[in-house]
Every structure is written in structure tokens, then in C-alpha cells.
Write a structure and sequence with these properties.
CATH superfamily: Bira Bifunctional Protein, Domain 2
CATH topology: BirA Bifunctional Protein, domain 2
Distance between the termini: 32 Å
Helix content: 10-25%
Number of domains: 1
Largest sheet: 9 strands, mixed
Shape: globular
Order of helices and strands: EHEEEEEHEEEEEHE
Number of helices: 3
CATH class: Alpha Beta
Structural class: alpha/beta
Number of strands: 12
């Protein structure tokens, strides 16, 4: 695809990958601190923008539009209220989470274009594994058509913007336990299911998906620089 001029930046973005699972509140604390530093123009920060990839332990998170009636099994996993947009979602092992701390002041100040860029990043990454995924009108996230003609969600998108700095981001189902989604109505949509690369017959590892995601991120958001310490 062509570089979206409103969100592409020639300034290098740092890419950091967490090898061990990261607790949700720990991740939020890191994002909050990083966003504050970007918004303040902290000259001592080695990389102004950051893309952080990781896995979480099994948990549910509630976005700003979450309806408590969509939390079917509140005792199954820890539940965290979060400032990102959207409703309930699941995070856990086998799912690649990408948190994007980007300065939208330098990327056109266009939130819709930014969210569309995240969606396109997921769509392009899945396409490289032979999966035809796309957006669906009136629904958040990225979706696929299943062999039985049903539709299923394979990736979630939820963002927050503070002082024109983004955080939170995306999650891609590689090989999670899909039964863990049964404790919620994912994103408030009960009439469709969820799926994963593994469920679609794609035996990709997290490292495989992350490498492709990183390559596609450069096409959409700009060059990737050295990782942060």
C-alpha cells in the first residue's frame, strides 16, 4: 500500500519486544510515563516514539464504552478498567499485543487516519500469512470470513490519545485459548465469534508474526530505530 502521508514520519521509531509476560497494570504504568515524556518533549528520552510488543497473562480489560452486562464471568480472570476506547476484550498467552506510543502532532493530528493505519497494519500482516482479513462496517477490529460462512474477529484495536500522543493499540490472536473469550462479549458483539491464526491452520510463532508486523509498521508509520534500554 502507499504510505499514508498523514501518519507516516521519517523520524525513527524505537521497537521494544518484551520476552516475558507483562502484567497489565505494569504495562499501563510504562505507557503513561512514556506518553507524558513525549508530550513534554523530554530531551533526555533516547527515543521519542515507541512501539512495544508483548504478551499479557490471561485477563479481561474494560474500555471506556464497556457495558457490565457483557462481563459474563467476572471471576474467571482479573478484570481491569482502562482508558482506551472500546468495550471488553481478552488478553493472554498466544496473543501478540502491540502498544503504539506515537506523537500524532507530527503525524497530521488525524485520529481516524491513525486508527485506520493500525487496522491496515494488521490487515497487511495477516495477508502476508495468507489470511484475507478486513474491516467490517459498524464494528471495531479486524475480521475474517470462516469456512462455514460465519464471520470472526482475529484482531482487536483500541486506542487512547492524550495531548496528541497515542497509546494502547492492537492485539492479534496467534494461538490463544479461544475458550477464554467466553467470559465476555468481545467488544460488545455477540453475534460473531473470534478466531486465530492457529484456528485457521496457520502455524506461525509469535516471532514470525512480530517480524512481519515490524516490517509492515515501517511502511505505514515510518522507519524503525534501535531499541530502548
Amino acid at each position: 500500500m502507499n504510505k499514508p502521508p498523514s501518519i507516516f514520519s521519517p523520524a525513527p521509531v524505537s521497537w521494544q519486544s518484551a520476552s516475558a509476560p507483562v502484567g497489565y497494570l505494569d504495562a499501563v504504568a510504562v505507557m503513561e510515563a512514556w506518553v507524558a515524556a513525549i508530550a513534554a518533549g523530554d530531551a533526555h528520552q533516547q527515543a521519542k516514539e515507541l512501539i512495544w510488543t508483548l504478551e499479557h497473562p490471561a485477563l479481561y480489560s474494560a474500555g471506556t464504552s464497556a457495558d457490565i452486562s457483557d462481563l459474563i464471568d467476572p471471576d474467571r480472570f482479573p478484570v481491569f478498567k482502562t482508558g482506551r476506547g472500546g468495550q471488553y476484550t481478552y488478553h493472554g498467552p498466544g496473543q501478540l499485543v502491540g502498544y503504539f506510543m506515537l506523537d500524532l502532532k507530527t503525524r497530521g493530528r488525524d485520529v481516524r487516519a491513525y486508527v485506520a493505519g493500525l487496522e491496515q497494519l494488521v490487515i497487511d500482516t495477516l495477508a502476508d500469512f495468507g489470511v484475507a482479513a478486513d474491516r467490517r462496517a459498524g464494528r471495531v477490529g479486524v475480521w475474517v470470513d470462516m469456512p462455514d460462512k460465519s464471520e470472526a474477529k482475529i484482531a482487536a484495536v483500541g486506542v487512547r490519545i492524550r495531548k496528541w500522543v497515542s497509546y494502547h493499540g492492537i492485539s492479534i490472536n496467534i494461538n490463544p485459548d479461544l475458550s477464554h473469550f467466553d467470559g465476555i462479549v468481545p467488544c460488545g458483539i455477540s453475534e460473531h465469534g473470534v478466531t486465530s491464526l492457529h484456528a485457521l491452520g496457520i502455524e506461525a510463532s509469535r516471532a514470525d508474526v512480530e517480524a512481519v508486523l515490524k516490517n509492515n509498521s515501517e511502511k505505514i508509520f515510518g522507519p524503525i530505530g534501535a531499541p530502548n534500554p
